[in-house]
Q: What sequence folds into this?
């Protein structure tokens, strides 16, 4: 009995142990499977999030490419608007398309007339063209070619008019559009450009272009809780998402993100086989090989980690590697530069660099050649970097660098040498094509300033460098607080200019032109003054260049001309005898079509004799295009206006200008007379002025001396007769009302005539 009891107790004990081990094995198995499922689910979620972020970044990259095209179209539209006629615009468009047979450019109008710059092509839908003319921004569209259904990329932009809806526009069509233009090619990715209704505008496989994404996915089976209806709704709403599905025995993920273009989305279809195989293998081994649970658990963890590392490396490349150069992109540069700024003890500088007029390279030689140029520049940049320096392509042709800077002169010399090495490929070419670099430099002198602030300052300095005309291979500019203040001032001017014009904060000031023998006011120059109720008087040299850059100077010129006509009419009605008044015209104004006819309408509306109005052109303006300027002067005379040449002597072709232009008056630049006050250069300046005055008398051209400030200059001009003298020696610019009271009223004329010559 005792043995039996012992056996039973032993069997019972082994049974309980067996059950305990089985329960423990099942528990461990359940824990392993649960943990495995948790890890895989978490990895899938993170992978999905990383895929989503990468897709959104690629969508932003495509948006930047499309936006670049729209910017180019805006510039081309502005250039076309400045041309005199349709033929000139078509010739200009022909140069844009170049020798690319796949590109068609055309000029279209609201009445449906379409003029191709090349051999011609098909006509896009009129609704697209009308939509372009009714908008302020360029239109971009992709649609199938009516003949072979190949994708066509269309850019269309209205010609700016400045005073109403556009009546003409330009379009640029590329009949050989592929996604590889915007994105790097990949053998494992299926890439789509979609409309909100799922229509495939572009695909890596041409046979899918023009079809429907949902037809393509119609025979697929959704996975992991994905819903085709939800995907349709997200595409329709312009939101991002992921659709997991199985098609032809393969598990896939469709990742999509909206573009800035209305109703467009970018989608990637990629296989998820490696992840699904891991899940299946884990579950099978966990159920069938319970004895090796712990070992399999370790293998599974290692396998998962390896898979995750592979996915992470792939996603990291998408997130941190520039697809064109293979180096750092903007995100990677930001992370590494921020770390370097915190740790580096040596003085650094943030450098923003680009290729001047790089868009011309793409237009002239093609995008592939442009990409090779960018890769060549990146190689030249990275070869010069030390261990604690960085370089990255931020977008298109802009590169950011974080460099050591012991002395500003050394850094500038280093960048100049870099530009020379970048252009060394020209040494072996019979026809050189040099590519100058524009560089903005921001020294890191404030450790609390974030990287974004340094980049903004370097970009500002680079944009300032672009304004500098230079034939050097590298134009560098260091950031300064003055640049920042000037930018803020320009922005303030842009914000207030329209309201200032509407509220008449721009005032007309007149500076008299005085004849010396006898001394009398024989003319005046109309000058603009901005009297802001908040900031007081703004200097003309502060706001006029800004208004010239944004084109608002055209409205200001017309406003000043009309103000001049109003004051002349007022003085004529008072019975006074006003002298001729000269009005400055900017280059932007003179390039507008029918501008002189509009000025003539203003003059006739105010019933001002045209001989009392003199239009001033600058020598720099007319020297740029003498043929056009000569025709312009003839047209000015045909309307009865007088014409004067301002700043004579400030350019490089003054005598050539006199031989071509039949102007009535030349105004000698004030620098001639400033030179008279120099003990060293005074005699030479006097000889030059005397020669110019004598030449003008022989040509029958009247002369005006600008910037006369003292008795010595005045006496010289009496001895070497000059028709009129203008300067602070006689009077600064004064309000038009005061000008009339002091110089045109009977009392004012008498007082001025009786005043001593040096008053």
A:
């Amino acid at each position: 009995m005792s043995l039996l009891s012992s056996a039973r107790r032993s069997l019972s004990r082994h049974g309980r142990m067996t059950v305990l081990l089985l329960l423990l094995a099942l528990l461990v198995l359940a824990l392993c499977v649960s943990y495995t499922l948790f890890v895989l689910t978490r990895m899938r979620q993170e992978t999905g999030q990383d895929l989503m972020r990468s897709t959104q970044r690629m969508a932003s990259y495509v948006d930047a490419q499309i936006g670049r095209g729209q910017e180019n179209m805006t510039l081309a539209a502005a250039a076309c608007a400045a041309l005199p006629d349709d033929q000139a615009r078509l010739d200009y468009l022909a140069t844009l398309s170049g020798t690319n047979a796949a590109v068609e450019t055309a000029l279209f109008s609201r009445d449906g007339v379409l003029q191709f710059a090349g051999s011609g092509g098909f006509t896009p839908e009129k609704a697209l063209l009308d939509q372009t003319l009714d908008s302020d921004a360029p239109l971009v569209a992709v649609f199938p070619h009516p003949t072979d259904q190949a994708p066509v990329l269309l850019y269309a932009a209205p010609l700016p008019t400045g005073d109403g809806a556009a009546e003409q526009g330009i379009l640029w069509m590329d009949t050989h559009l592929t996604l590889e233009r915007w994105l790097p090619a990949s053998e494992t990715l299926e890439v789509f450009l979609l409309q909100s209704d799922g229509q495939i505008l572009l695909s890596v496989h041409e046979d899918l272009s023009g079809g429907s994404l949902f037809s393509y996915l119609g025979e697929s089976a959704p996975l992991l809780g994905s819903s085709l209806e939800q995907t349709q709704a997200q595409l329709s709403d312009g939101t991002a998402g992921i659709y997991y599905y199985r098609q032809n025995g393969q598990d896939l993920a469709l990742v999509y993100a909206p573009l800035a273009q209305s109703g467009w989305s970018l989608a990637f279809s990629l296989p998820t086989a490696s992840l699904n195989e891991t899940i299946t293998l884990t579950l099978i081994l966990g159920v069938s090989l319970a004895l090796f649970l712990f070992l399999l658990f370790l293998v599974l963890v290692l396998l998962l980690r390896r898979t995750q590392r592979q996915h992470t490396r792939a996603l990291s490349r998408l997130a941190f590697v520039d697809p064109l150069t293979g180096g750092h992109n903007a995100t990677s540069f930001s992370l590494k530069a921020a770390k370097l700024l915190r740790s580096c003890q040596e003085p650094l500088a943030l450098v923003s660099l680009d290729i001047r007029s790089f868009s011309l390279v793409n237009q002239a030689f093609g995008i592939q050649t442009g990409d090779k140029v960018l890769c060549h520049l990146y190689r030249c940049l990275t070869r010069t970097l030390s261990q604690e320096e960085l370089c990255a392509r931020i977008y298109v042709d802009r590169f950011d660098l974080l460099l050591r800077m012991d002395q500003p002169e050394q850094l500038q010399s280093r960048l100049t040498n870099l530009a020379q090495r970048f252009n060394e490929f020209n040494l072996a070419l019979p026809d050189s094509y040099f590519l100058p670099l524009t560089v903005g430099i921001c020294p890191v002198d404030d450790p609390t300033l974030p990287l974004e602030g340094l980049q903004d300052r370097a970009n500002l300095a680079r944009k300032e460098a672009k304004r500098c005309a230079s034939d050097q291979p590298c134009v560098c500019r260091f950031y300064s607080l003055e640049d920042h203040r000037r930018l803020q001032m320009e922005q303030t001017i842009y914000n207030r200019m329209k309201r200032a014009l509407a509220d008449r904060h721009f005032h007309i000031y007149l500076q008299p032109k005085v004849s010396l023998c006898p001394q009398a006011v024989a003319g005046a120059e109309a000058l603009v003054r901005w009297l802001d109720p908040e900031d007081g008087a703004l200097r003309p040299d502060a706001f006029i260049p800004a208004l010239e850059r944004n084109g608002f100077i055209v409205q200001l010129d017309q406003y000043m001309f009309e103000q001049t006509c109003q004051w002349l009419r007022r003085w004529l009605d008072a019975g006074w005898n006003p002298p001729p008044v000269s009005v400055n015209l900017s280059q932007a104004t003179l390039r507008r079509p029918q501008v002189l006819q509009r000025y003539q309408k203003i003059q006739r509306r105010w019933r001002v004799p045209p001989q009392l109005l003199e239009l001033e052109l600058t020598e720099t303006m007319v020297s740029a295009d003498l043929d056009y300027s000569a025709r312009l002067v003839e047209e000015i005379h045909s309307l009865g206006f007088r014409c004067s040449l301002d700043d004579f002597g400030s350019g490089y072709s003054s005598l050539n200008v006199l031989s071509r232009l039949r102007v009535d008056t030349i105004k000698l630049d004030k620098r001639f007379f400033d030179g008279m006050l120099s003990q060293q250069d005074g005699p030479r300046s006097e000889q030059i002025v005397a020669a110019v005055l004598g030449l003008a008398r022989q040509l029958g051209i009247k002369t005006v001396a600008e910037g006369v400030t003292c008795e010595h200059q005045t006496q010289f001009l009496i001895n070497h007769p000059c028709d009129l003298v203008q300067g602070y020696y006689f009077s600064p610019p004064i309000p038009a009302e005061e000008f009339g009271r002091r110089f045109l009223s009977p009392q004012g004329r008498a007082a001025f005539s009786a005043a001593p010559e040096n008053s």
Notes: The chain has 25 helices and 26 strands.
